[in-house]
Protein: Phenol hydroxylase C-terminal dimerization
Amino acid sequence: MPVFTEHSSSSRDLRVLPSFAPPLPRLAPPFKPEPKIGERYEVVVVGAGPAGLMQSLLLSRYGLNDASLLCVDAKPSTLKSGQADGVQPRTLEVFKTLGISTEIENEACQMWQFAFWNPATDPKKVIERTAVVPEVIPAARFKYEATIHQGRIERIMETDLLRYSERGILRNTRVLDVSLDEEGDDEFPVLVSMATDGIVKVIRTKHLVGADGAHSVVRRCMGLPLEGESLDHIWGVVDMVAETDFPDIRRRCAIHSPAGSIMIIPRERISTGEYLTRLYVQVPEDVAPACDLVPGGGEGVRPDDARQRRSKITLEGILKQAADAIQPYSLRPKDGAVDWWAAYQIGQRVSPEFIVKDSKGAARVFITGDACHTHSPKAGQGMNVSMMDSYNLAWKLMYHINGLAAQPTCSNKPTLLLETYQTERHQIAQQLIDFDRKFSTMFSGEMATTEGLMQEELQQAFELNNGFTSGCGVEYPENMLVVRDEDNINSPSLIQGTDYLSGILRPGRRLLNVRLLRHADGWQRDIHDDLPSTGRFRIMCLTSADLLDQNSISAQTLEAVTLLAAQFPKSVVEQIILHPKLHRSFEWDDIPACVKQEAEMRFYDGSVLDDAYTIYGVDPARGVLLVVRPDGYVGVVASLDDVQRVDRYLKSCIQTVSGN
Amino acid sequence: MPVFTEHSSSSRDLRVLPSFAPPLPRLAPPFKPEPKIGERYEVVVVGAGPAGLMQSLLLSRYGLNDASLLCVDAKPSTLKSGQADGVQPRTLEVFKTLGISTEIENEACQMWQFAFWNPATDPKKVIERTAVVPEVIPAARFKYEATIHQGRIERIMETDLLRYSERGILRNTRVLDVSLDEEGDDEFPVLVSMATDGIVKVIRTKHLVGADGAHSVVRRCMGLPLEGESLDHIWGVVDMVAETDFPDIRRRCAIHSPAGSIMIIPRERISTGEYLTRLYVQVPEDVAPACDLVPGGGEGVRPDDARQRRSKITLEGILKQAADAIQPYSLRPKDGAVDWWAAYQIGQRVSPEFIVKDSKGAARVFITGDACHTHSPKAGQGMNVSMMDSYNLAWKLMYHINGLAAQPTCSNKPTLLLETYQTERHQIAQQLIDFDRKFSTMFSGEMATTEGLMQEELQQAFELNNGFTSGCGVEYPENMLVVRDEDNINSPSLIQGTDYLSGILRPGRRLLNVRLLRHADGWQRDIHDDLPSTGRFRIMCLTSADLLDQNSISAQTLEAVTLLAAQFPKSVVEQIILHPKLHRSFEWDDIPACVKQEAEMRFYDGSVLDDAYTIYGVDPARGVLLVVRPDGYVGVVASLDDVQRVDRYLKSCIQTVSGN
Structure:
């Protein structure tokens, strides 16, 4: 259009860039590096695999700059020959709230189905498909597991990190030693000795996160054991473009044949236009007895025994075994070339402690990811659980550093909020180990011999545990951040139903995404898009059907919630408001003014797209209040007339600005 | 997991990067720059606004490298103070097929509803809402219009361009003159004189695309007029954070009050967390008579008259008029600050020719976007129609350059395919101009005086033309690329229904997205994701319900289509196959082998998610064949037993490799 007069403000120029996440406010005094005293940080992250990258990315987005935060990695560049490939639906939900899910959504392989193949009733057919089940069983925003090269996941996170951090990852940097030295400097008690390109230096930090993998130097230096067992089955894993007439090559398959077991994982399309396939193949040999617990975090295999057996593993052997097990179908790498192959032994081990405290009881060193739990890869858990460790820890650490965490009332509990990392994630790690042991055992050599029952059990185990493995049904135990109904016992029917996998509200589980119609503009939105990973708490009010009555309980609750939210540092507590089907249409004037003031763009009709009240198990006649934690988990549920319950919950987590 | 043996191929290293679009094959001899002869290109694009960037991006993705393609722009950087802000649903569909829609999906404002406000029946209320209608009426993958800063759209395209082109846009480069000089070099007859940072040089190119805006130098040098009229109403436009009690500030609104007319366009959220609002305000004054056609592409306003009136326009005047027209509500910029403001005059003009040919009839110079059509901004069309010009032209130009276009049989028609750019896009430009004239007139000063009828008419005009303005109902006229039913008259019921906005198949309209279940893996997919903008033709076969019979017409058709597709250069013609609800489940073995060979990952059940057959108007008992052009438009529809019709269509477009 031909414009003849034009005036522009300077802030407009920046609008061409993608949005940045708003940093969290800081009540604590600003951090000032003092080079004269020595190199010091607020947080050092060791390791830039999925766990370390997620940790660094979140802390950067929450507001830690390069002066406060250092992330180091021993490798010279991002991972090239990565092993993990599965991105679970809950991980995708989290990536989505970070705005970094698109490349995975568009370019990963989406596994929607899991097929089970077993010895055929007609022996001439050898094997037959006995079931096809959905890959993702709980209600979820993404109904599939994505598979894509681990290096790509890391590159996606690093690219986003570089929007917030000029330095990014300090590479070629090997951590040599980590120790606590409170006498030297009790504010920066963690001493880290590291070598960058061979040049050694010692730095200090307030906190350190060891995300440095199964052979974690941090874990070793802190003297934490890795407890568990190694079942000692040897498996081969191959990525290749498959040439096959097997009909389910594009589905995830568990195949048990008289000749052995294979798992097929379809993978992403590559630049040739072809599709990768991953095979897990059990290497045939006598089943060795399970090794005992190996203390000290070694690999859990007796060196002599293992070395001899390892030397037997060849690509040809793996491919031969796969070809045998998939008979009568054929299966070989196209043009004889494989993309990557490896061999491994199943072992499940977990550290009993994820946190190391100083002498005053303050949490100083954390371990995350493979550094605190290792297990087999076949359930596609490793990368996911590791990143979710970071997702659980990062906001707590940030609240602690920024002075946003509520000051404990007893002087001997300085880091209550931080301790919930151990409470919540150690339980998950233990569940992971237990599931993996069960799933792997079923899938291993015993399988072919006991048949029938075991075959069904594998499928049942998959289905039963899918809430956990998809990440969408994970439930944290009761703790200061997860307050259940024990003191709310007089309102037994506040939440109707117990099918939490379908979305029924439950403290300790993530809030299910629902689609809602926004009042202000008719925008059909996903509620998860109002839960971006910006470190904020959200009070959600599902009002009752009396919203249009001026003196209704809903109106009173909304006003009380607004007063409550104002007691916390600005922007830290947001409001989301839903209404059920009402008896008439209405305008802003018909509802309490605080709705438009506090939640104009987060006020929804919860009845016309998804039926949010039914999905969440909420009676529209009663409504409900809940708090969603910064990581998307429900923290507490209360009746509309019990704002005090929300008040107590939030004040136990977040420092008020008024001090009350 | 602890791996002890690991081997990786080198190609794996590249897998961490986002995918690249596969270039089109080239039958023409490779282009070799010969610096001794002079600087020469295959295509020069002038202008890096939305039209020029889309042109350059597509040509780069189709395979033109920096040696072949040069894009220049006079400005020193991407647009800062851009004017356009609307991204229509069809444009979003195209962005999605390019993999660049995400940032818009996530961060633009989504306009889902259009509210009409008119003088109230109760005069005390002054104005009242008379209707709320959906912003997007036709069936579409995206049910909203997105609004976001034009500079950001350009930055998104430029970022993607830089993945394919090292040079990107050559900026600070002003084109001084363009002329045809066949005598000097008839293969590179377009002479371009340009100045980069003031240094002048002359280069040659086979083709030139003038995407250099309303004041196009290319258009002027080629002597093309811009015909039409300027209605001469003056409008002010303001972007600001609004402080208002107007209830529909987050909806698109057309407000007519006794005090004047405003249009409200909600805009994206900015870094403060606040939301922008755009206002179009009619500047009050006597309505001046429409100017006559102004030849030569001037601004269409008599300089003396206009200059005097322009000087009256101030921000304060615009805001005062907006505040008056929205009474009894209040409306002002928050903190008194506006983001951007401008004034413009409505004018609709179009060039009669979009192509300039050389003496042999070969199309050499093209104009696109504002260079060939200008109009008012209020319908949110400009940026969209401009980019769709490029989307229409780019693949045709690439087919021509790469020798993929079918050689014409008559020697006097060397550039049949290229000429369809004029045929198709000039008609769209004319429709745009006609619509804009009607819509703008209705919305302008006449409105408030005639009331009633006109108010309804504006809403009707919006609804009636939404197919066009959304881009989703655009229909190209019959031409070599759009073959309708005239010679197919014996199959009158091949396509049932005529409600093309709902998705009924129609040559000349874009194929509607549907969701389908993929046979190979149970992936629930959008068919548009199988129509990426890679320049390929697609033969879609909606088989009939007899697919499982070995000698069925469906089976014969699939085999014939496979033979046909093989006659064209490798990868240029892809197959997509759907089946209707069948009477039993089936395996790959039950259907023709060519389905798995040619379309393993593009073979769908068209009945279980969306009912594709009903949506497309296809009888499952009969099925249908169709060709989807590289730009997503349906080219031809044929009965399953008439593969010849598809054969003729494709051979009129694409050069066969066997020559038959």
